[in-house]
Specification:
326 residues, 11 helices, globular
Length: 326
């Protein structure tokens, strides 16, 4: 009989990335065409398209980055498109549960949370490919460059800022990965707290409210520029941070990028249009692609629910551990 301890040991030994699926369409494929403009039959079920925007960045910047994307969706499919920025990740998860959103670019953990909350009522369409064709990113732990902290061991007894309780890179994966290394976050750090988003967590370190924070980055390119893509790159480009002020002291194993997510019950033709729109976007409208992705990459790749089963299992385990502690 499989004991709870044995099951947990097997879960902890699991990789952070799934096995790649077969026959996935990619933005780099030849022959992909951007959808022709025109009203669709699925408009009868979707009189307007409601797009969710995860938290982690101030609302004005998010709306600004996504406005050209919104306008392009309107022109292409000839229907009103509204953006719904949430104050945190939970807002988008709850909106999917209430059927108040039709599509959103989710983190892998937020997707898993929405999948669990809706009992499989959401599904992934495409995910982001990095510049080298991989579909992963990393969580990074940052301290002030003048802090004297040079490694994870230097954080013993110090204050740690998590980004968001529903973020993979900003909470779930760092905690999971540290446990793999034999570090119990509840006992290792002197104090922990939620900063309210990725951008806010980095700012909290710069302002000496916390000794370290975790956020997401592509893990590729020049670290001094905030890598090729991610929260740090966006903050560098907006002039909010100079990477000389910060030091990366820890990186996670690769994490599968989050998916463009939609409701399972929506028409198959709508899902196909959304896939083609995003797959062809980097070549057809590169500036809009770079804006919504906060940096450059190779485009998008189709994904399936199986690609995120690990994250669903991890969230289930996290919830079970929380219930046990309480």
């Amino acid at each position: 009989m499989l004991t709870r301890r044995a099951a947990l040991a097997g879960f902890i030994a699991a990789p952070l990335l799934p096995c790649p699926a077969l026959a996935q369409r990619r933005s780099v494929d030849a022959g992909l065409e951007f959808p022709a403009a025109g009203a669709r039959a699925w408009k009868a079920q979707l009189p307007q398209l409601r797009v969710g925007l995860l938290g982690g960045e101030n609302e004005a910047d998010r709306l600004g980055r996504f406005d050209a994307y919104r306008a392009l969706l309107e022109r292409t499919f000839e229907l009103p498109v509204r953006l719904f920025p949430a104050s945190d990740y939970a807002g988008v998860i709850q909106a999917f549960g209430a059927k108040q959103l039709d599509i959103a670019n989710m983190s892998p953990a937020a997707y898993a949370g929405a999948w669990l909350d809706t009992n499989g009522g959401v599904e992934p369409l495409v995910t982001t490919e990095e510049a080298d064709g991989s579909v992963s990113y990393v969580a990074v732990m940052l301290v002030r460059a003048d802090s004297g902290i040079a490694s994870i061991e230097g954080m013993r007894g110090k204050a740690m800022a998590w980004s968001d309780p529903n973020s993979a890179s900003g909470y779930l994966i760092p905690r999971f990965s540290l446990r793999r290394q034999g570090i119990n976050p509840e006992q290792f750090f002197g104090r922990t707290g939620f900063a309210g988003g990725h951008e806010q967590a980095v700012v909290a370190v710069l302002q000496r409210q916390y000794d370290a924070a975790v956020t997401w980055a592509s893990g590729q390119g020049d670290e001094a520029q905030g890598f090729t893509r991610g929260a740090l790159r966006a903050m560098v480009e907006k002039g909010l941070v100079d990477m000389k002020q910060l030091r990366v002291i820890w990186r996670s194993d690769p994490i599968i990028n989050g998916p463009q997510t939609t409701r399972t019950e929506l028409p198959a033709a709508f899902k196909e249009d959304m896939k083609l729109f995003h797959l062809a976007l980097p070549k057809a409208h590169p500036d809009i692609y770079r804006q919504i992705e906060r940096g450059g990459g190779a485009g998008y790749r189709e994904v399936s629910a199986a690609d995120y089963q690990f994250m669903i299992d991890m969230r289930r385990q996290e919830a079970a551990e929380r219930r046990r502690r309480n």
